[in-house]
Amino acid sequence: MKKISVAVAAFAGLAAASAAHAQSSVTLYGLIDAGIMYTNNVDKGGSHGALVQATSGNINGSRFGLRGSEDLGGGLQAIFSLENGYNVQNGKLGQNNRLFGRQAYAGLSSKQFGTLTLGRQYDSLVDFVAPLSGTAGTFGDAGFAHPFDNDNLNHSVRISNAVKYSSVNYAGLKFGGLYAFSNNTDFAVNRAYSAGVSYSNGPFKAAAGYLQINGSNTTTNTAGAVDLAESAANGTGGFRLGADVQRTAGAALSYGFGPLTAGFVYTHSQFQNTASFGATHGSMRFDNYEVNGKYAMTPALSLAAAYTYTDAHVSGTSSFGADPKWNQVNLQAVYALSLRTDVYAEAMYQHVSGKGYTAFINTAGGASSTGNQVVGTVGLRTRF
């Protein structure tokens, strides 16, 4: 009897330990994107010509991260995420040399009330509108960004010091919002807030979002909500879109027709009191119109295309024209070698018109010396 009691007690202890283990989890994950890129015209140091380069993150930024959860009971969990970005070609940190520059947050998640998180996170345009655009991580992402990523759909700037709420799914409806502190005695200098909503019903999806950043061009508070040096380091060729007030609103629709998914995206960005393009207390406006499509030709092969027309207005500058226009065409083919690994090819063409403006495709390696630029890329992605 004593032996049976000891055995039962040992079994109960093991069961309890297993249950405790099942209630908590930590996952290591990552993605490596490496490729070769050709750009027909890059202007660097007064000389210009074709550029062939080994690249990291042509489509998806190379990364690794830790995410975890702990069951607190009653449908409540404690959660966290620490995600690093890096360049696979040289091993350097991304996001302006941050250890966990892509994401770093902790919070609580409820099956009934939604999720509340604190830390470095994505804004609502990225959460709700970007997944339906060419900048989605399942689409062209980095190279398909709108000029200078003016609407931040490609998350060139992530939001620090942020408190964020994300709702549960109410019959296809989701919503959320974010507020990021300036961490400064001047409360309004370099702070941000954002809100968004999405709806999904079968093959139909729709989303809308808004982002406002106050004082993003400040040089006195670099520890606030955004760091413009980060956007320059993320592929915008050193160009920074900063302003006393930056406002972006966007909306997107998509519909699936069997193996084909087609979508439309519109975003409107305003920059008030900016020094960009040599403006003195000037302003900028960007209206981006994007149509996109993705076709699953076979279970392994998918084709994608996107076209963006950008109509802009710049005031307060004599060096550049007041009304530049951008046209960009993007093509992509992805072939899956397995569930985790694929190879891809991309081609992008951009044309810009307006006095003083030159073409520049995101991640191309630099601006063109003319109003045209062509980029071709081949690469490999593997996930773990």
Task: Label this structure with key terms.
384 residues; mainly beta; 17 strands; 9% helix; globular; disordered N terminus
Structure notes:
This protein has 384 residues and is mainly β. It has one domain: Porin (Beta Barrel), CATH 2.40.160.10. 9% of the residues lie in helices and 52% in strands. The protein is built from 3 helices and 17 strands. A hairpin with a 2-residue loop joins strand 9 (191-201) and strand 10 (204-214). It is found in: Cell outer membrane. This is Porin. InterPro entries: Gram-neg_bact_OMP, Gram_neg_porin_domain, Porin_dom_sf, Porin_Gram-ve, Porin_Neis. GO terms for molecular function: porin activity.
Indicate the topology.
Layout lengths: L1 H22 E21 L2 E10 L6 E11 L2 E10 L17 E8 L3 E8 L2 H6 L29 E8 L6 E8 L10 E11 L2 E11 L13 H6 L11 E13 L2 E15 L7 E15 L4 E15 L9 E12 L4 E13 L18 E12 L1
Antiparallel strand pairs: 1-2, 1-3, 1-17, 3-4, 4-5, 5-6, 6-7, 7-8, 8-9, 9-10, 10-11, 11-12, 12-13, 13-14, 14-15, 15-16, 16-17
- By secondary-structure content and strand pairing, the structural class works out as mainly beta
What would you call the shape?
Answer: globular
Please state roughly what percent of the residues sit in beta strands, choosing from under 5%, 5-15%, 15-25%, 25-35%, 35-45% or over 45%: over 45%
Radius of gyration: 23 Å
What is the count of distinct domains? 1
| N to C succession of SSEs | HEEEEEEHEEEEHEEEEEEE
Overall mean confidence score, pLDDT: 90
CATH topology: Porin
Subcellular location: Cell outer membrane
Keywords: Cell outer membrane, Ion transport, Membrane, Porin, Signal, Transmembrane, Transmembrane beta strand, Transport
Protein name: Porin
GO molecular function: porin activity
